[in-house]
Amino acid sequence: MRQRPFEIREVAPLDQLMPEKVTDVQHLWFRVCREIDEQPWLHHCLMAYASDMALLGTGNRPHGVSWMTGELMSASLDHAMWFHAPINFSDWHLYNMDSQYAGGARSFNRGSIYTRDGQLVASVAQEGLMRPVKRKPK
Q: Which residue of 19, 55, 106, 117 has the fewest CB atoms within a 10 Å radius of its CB?
């Protein structure tokens, strides 16, 4: 709920405090919060950072779990990104994500990032760890 340097608008947001089992497919629009007139490499760096904010959660969706409930521990094991074209991250980009595999305490997640006019500008892949939090008996 804190203010962030990125604007993120989920296409079909879920209740992260009471998650339901849904498809692994997730879409959102994102950009930096203010106009940045900087070198092109900074736009790529900011997009790379922002691309990590929702991707891991796609593996949780089919299981109806969320790290926000306090019942799930998750961590990124790796994150790779390929840029296919120059970007202006001051403008909105569509981030399409899915999780091809989620089981055995791991998930494989991938994403495609498009400009407003539909040009693919980046591809993302991430493997994550996801485990129920083990509570000590009282």
A: 117
* Percent of the chain clearing pLDDT 70 (strictly above): 99
Q: Which residue has the tokens 């990104």?
A: 81
Which of the residues 66, 99, 107, 126 is marked catalytic?
Answer: 126
- Residue 114: closest CA among 125, 127, 123: 123
Percentage of the chain lying above the pLDDT 90 cut:
51
Catalytic status, residue 76: yes
pLDDT digits (tens, 9 = 90+) for 78-119: 999 999 999 999 999 999 999 999 888 899 999 999 999 999
Where are the domains positioned within the chain? 19-132
Q: What tokens were used for 35?
A: 């106009």
Residue spans of beta strands (DSSP E) within the chain: 6-10, 26-32, 72-83, 93-103, 106-115, 120-132
Residue written as token pair 């521990």:
73
91 is catalytic: no
**58 closest CA partner among 40, 71, 76:** 76
Domain range 19-132, its CATH number among 3.30.70.20, 3.40.50.720, 3.40.50.620, 3.10.129.10: 3.10.129.10
